[in-house]
Amino acid sequence: MRRATHKSIAGVTAAVERLRFNAAVAQIYELANALSAALQTPDPGEGLRFAIREAAESLVRIAAPMVPHLSEECWQVLGNQGLVAEQAWPVADPSLLTEDTVTIAVQVNGKRRGELTIARDAAKEDIEAAALALDAVARASRDGIFGRSWSCHRGSSMWSHSRAIAVVAIAAVTGLGLAGCGFQPLYGSNTTTASGTRLSEAMASVDVQPIPGRVGQKVRNELIFSNTGGGYAATPKYKLKIALREQDIQQLVQVTGNAQGQVFQLQASFTLVDASSGAVIHTGKAISRAPYTRFQEVFANVRARYNAEDRAAATISESIKSQVAAYLATT
Predict the structure, then answer these.
(1) Which 8-state DSSP code applies to residue 158?
(2) 51-56: long-range contacts at Cβ-Cβ below 8 A with a sequence spacing of 24 or more?
């Protein structure tokens, strides 16, 4: 499990650096499949439990550039604090990047006859003996399909028999499904919390406290509508308190000192409070940026700024909702 984890870390790191995102996603799927298989172990020992935890956290961190919102949700589900975007990029352990064994496919006259797993540094004679010991290969030998003259060459060339047989190294190809991971859709209609309550009902019982300012009102309205679907709010079980910080970042500054573009940055910190006890049960942060163009006309500038605020508010509200839902889904 640890080899699969660090192999994926190295593969995704190299792919992202070269902007080969399809290759990075393929590596992520391989790790997800390996993790899914490991989770099926009936009674994992301490070593495997450590490897599974390491794999799960590494999977979330290396997937964050491709699926940031899903990764943030998974990061919270794993019980971690803060944002996965704030975590350091994982580093692969070089000692875990080399497999001790390889899987060899055995072919006779171009037809696959079987496969064997053998030490990576096995001698030519040992590989030939193991291949000839396979039942299908032995039958081909008895039937006279090929003779006894062998030739062997390390490197990029394949192992070959003078008349028929070729033995080539192959890598195991994993599936792309994630169904065995044990996750349920965060916003699914049948998704439940750990206590058995429907998550949609738990979210509807979150009382979003008033937030000062135009942007604050926009964030609050987005959350209320998203949590209730436009219906009546349930009896409050939780109170959500949100503090916002707005900032303008100038871009495309001309030699005259005028900026043609700006970025509206919105930062949020929130606390989820138990309504009955008043205790803080969860905290989190979110950030969003929305660029907009500045114009000479005052009205156009105001409308562009409002549009940027609305976009940032929608993103912030979705991020907060995801974090709160991820927390409630585990309680």
Answers:
(1) P
(2) 51/1, 51/2, 51/5, 52/1, 54/2, 54/5, 55/1, 55/2, 55/4, 55/5, 55/31
Please report where in the chains the tokens 């990075």 appear, as a residue.
24
**pLDDT tens digits for range 98-122:** 766 777 777 776 677 777 777 777 7
Q: Give the distance, in angstroms, between the CA of residue 175 and the centroid of all CA atoms in the same chain.
A: 16
The DSSP call for residue 209 is P
pLDDT digits 0-9 by tens, 186-229: 555 566 676 778 888 888 899 999 999 999 999 999 999 988 87
Cβ neighbours for 18, distance < 8 A, ≥ 6 positions apart: none
Whole-angstrom distance, CA of residue 243 vs CA of residue 219:
11
**What is the Cα–Cα distance from 168 to 298, expressed in whole angstroms?**
71
Strand 206-208 versus strand 238-253 pairing type = parallel
